[in-house]
Structures are given as C-alpha cells and as structure tokens.
Amino acid sequence: MEKATEATRSATEFRQDLAGRLVNRVQLTTDGHKMYLSAAEDAFHGSVDFAQLVKIYGADSEGEKRYSPAVCLGCERTAVVGRPDPSTSAASTRPCE
C-alpha cells in the first residue's frame, strides 16, 4: 500500500505544479489509473476539463506471435470533471483502432 500512496503523492505533486503554471482552463486526458482521479481534483479544484481514456487490448486476429504486443481493440472515454471535448481526448500518440 505504501507504493500506491507514494505514486498518488507523486501524481498530485506533478498536477499541482502543472496547475500552478497554467493561466487558462485546460483539457486534461489521462489513462485509467485511479490515482489520477484524486490528483486532478487536488491540483485543479474542478477548474479543468478532465477525461480518462482507457484502451481495450486483446489478441491479434491473426493469432499470437512471439513477442508481439496486444492489439488495441478500442477505447472508452469517460468525462470526469467539466466538459472535456471527446474529439480531442488522447492519452498517448498510439491511436485507438
């Protein structure tokens, strides 16, 4: 449990530092890690458009290959705070397929 607490503390410190550097309201998109829920609220106090994007992975339709990564089958976007624009919600440069 100590590792989870440290990870949450680190995420909160990062978000607070980021929030302190921003002047305008921003849209924030993260993956589905639960620690980001409290970190975003602690840092931005609701003054953010915050979404989580969770990628759904599965086996390649051509069958498993040695050392090949799972295939992204789709994404689930969830608005957490504010009004995030789903068309611009992205948590990485690897697209959902």
Shape by Cα distribution: globular
Query: What is the distance, rounded to the nearest whole angstrom, between the alpha carbons of the first and last residues?
Result: 35 Å
Radius of gyration in whole Å, from Cα? 16 Å
Oligomer: single chain
Give the helix level as a range of percent: 25-40%
Number of strands: 3
Helix and strand composition category: alpha+beta
**Could you give a short account of the major beta sheet?**
3 strands, mixed
Low-pLDDT sequence parts: none
Q: State the helix count.
A: 2
> Mean of the pLDDT scores?
81
Structural features, described:
The structure is a single chain. The mean pLDDT is 81. Strand 1, helix 2 (35-44) and strand 2 (49-58) form a beta-alpha-beta unit. The longest helix has 20 residues, at 2-21. Strands 1-2-3 form a 3-stranded mixed sheet, covered by helices on one side. It has one domain. It is built from 2 helices and 3 strands; from the N terminus they run H-E-H-E-E. It has helices spanning 2-21, 35-44, and strands at residues 27-30, 49-58, 71-81. The protein has 97 residues and is an alpha+beta fold.
Q: What attributes does this structure have?
A:
alpha+beta; globular; 26% strand; 97 residues; 3 strands; 2 helices
Briefly summarize what is shown.
By secondary structure, the protein is α+β, with helices and mostly antiparallel strands. Helices cover 31% and strands 26% of the residues. It has helices at residues 2-21, 35-44, and strands at residues 27-30, 49-58, 71-81.
